[in-house]
């Protein structure tokens, strides 16, 4: 049976590099900036950005916390060295610890969300400093499952990999030559020690991607999904996550009191008037 998640890497690379170049330059910006974690998603974005714009127009920011794995920073640095791009390292420990001195009983979720938003705040500061567009690094699996922080890692100016499932991110990363140790290590947001995405989600990316492409892209019914071998419990779990996290994929809802409300009646493309 043909792998339904298989992509044509050469064609997808052409589409995504053109997307980065066109969407950056059409708004009068020449550079891009993004958070480089040492994981596969941000590494892939780095490789795509360099192919699109050249290394001199790409800036990576590495933002470790004191509990971040040293290997993550080393893997991020390996990308920087391989691509020859400019980079900065900002340790977010002082500001995160200063805030949580007042909330010592804060849960790991609160701490993780705060770190994700602190990192995005730093990226937008770099955006202003460098006149650079912030590139998103969330993939389609994460966006559908709501596995990310609103106004944190889910934020960006444009997102070149948001229509690629994690399985497809791995395919494209192999094609573009992302370092092997980054492709093969367990995915982790590195928010606390020994955290992995799949441990938190309760299933593997490979399994959920096989379900998502049928459910979302091919609009299979639950009965058709069961016929494909997926359990009722797994199907329901994934559907609940998609629907419960819809709000994360939308701009903030504005109360309608006029004839033309932004986001409801007043809707234009991002590059309207440019």
Structural overview:
49% of the residues lie in helices and 6% in strands. It is built from 12 helices and 4 strands. The chain has a 4-stranded parallel β-sheet with strand order 3-2-1-4, sandwiched between helices. ATP binds at residues 35-42, 137, 166, 188. InterPro entries: NAD/GMP_synthase, NAD_synthase, NH(3)-dep_NAD(+)_synth, Rossmann-like_a/b/a_fold. It is an enzyme of class 6 (ligase). Its EC number is 6.3.1.5.
Give me some keywords for this one.
12 helices; four-stranded parallel sheet; Rossmann-like_a/b/a_fold; NAD; alpha/beta
Write the layout of secondary structure elements.
Elements: H1 9-25, E1 31-35, H2 40-53, E2 58-62, H3 70-83, E3 86-89, H4 93-100, H5 108-130, E4 132-134, H6 140-145, H7 166-176, H8 180-184, H9 197-201, H10 205-217, H11 222-227, H12 232-244
Parallel strand pairs: 1-2, 1-4, 2-3
Sheet bearing the most strands, described?
Answer: 4 strands, parallel
Low-confidence stretches: none
Distance between the termini: 46 Å
Quick one: how many beta strands?
4
Helix content: 40-55%
Rg over alpha carbons? 19 Å
* Class from secondary-structure proportions: alpha/beta
- Gross morphology is globular
Give the strand order, joined by hyphens, for the main sheet. Answer: 3-2-1-4
Mean pLDDT: 95
Strand content is 5-15%
Helix tally equals 12
What string, H for helix and E for strand, traces the elements in order?
Answer: HEHEHEHHEHHHHHHH
């Amino acid at each position: 049976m043909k792998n339904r998640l298989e992509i044509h890497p050469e064609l997808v690379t052409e589409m995504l590099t053109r997307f980065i170049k066109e969407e950056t330059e059409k708004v009068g910006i020449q550079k891009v900036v993004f958070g480089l974690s040492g994981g596969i998603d941000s590494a892939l974005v780095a490789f795509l950005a360099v192919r699109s714009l050249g290394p001199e127009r790409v800036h990576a920011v590495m933002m470790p916390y004191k509990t971040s794995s040293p290997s993550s920073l080393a893997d991020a640095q390996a990308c920087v060295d391989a691509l020859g791009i400019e980079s900065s390292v900002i340790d977010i420990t002082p500001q995160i610890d200063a805030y949580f001195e007042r909330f010592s009983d804060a849960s790991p979720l609160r701490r993780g969300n705060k770190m994700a938003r602190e990192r995005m705040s730093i990226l937008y500061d770099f955006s202003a400093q460098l006149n650079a567009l912030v590139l998103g690094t969330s993939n389609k699996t994460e966006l559908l499952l709501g596995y990310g922080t609103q106004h944190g890692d889910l934020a960006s100016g444009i997102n070149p990999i948001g229509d690629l499932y994690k399985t497809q991110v791995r395919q494209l990363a192999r094609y573009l030559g992302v370092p092997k140790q980054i492709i093969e290590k367990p995915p982790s947001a590195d928010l606390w020690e020994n955290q992995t995405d799949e441990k938190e989600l309760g299933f593997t990316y490979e399994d959920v991607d096989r379900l998502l492409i049928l459910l979302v892209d091919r609009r299979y019914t639950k009965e058709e999904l069961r016929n494909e071998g997926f359990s009722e419990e797994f199907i329901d779990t994934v559907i609940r996550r998609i629907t419960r996290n819809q709000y994360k994929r939308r701009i903030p809802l504005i109360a309608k009191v006029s004839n033309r409300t932004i986001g409801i009646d007043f809707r234009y493309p991002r590059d309207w008037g440019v």
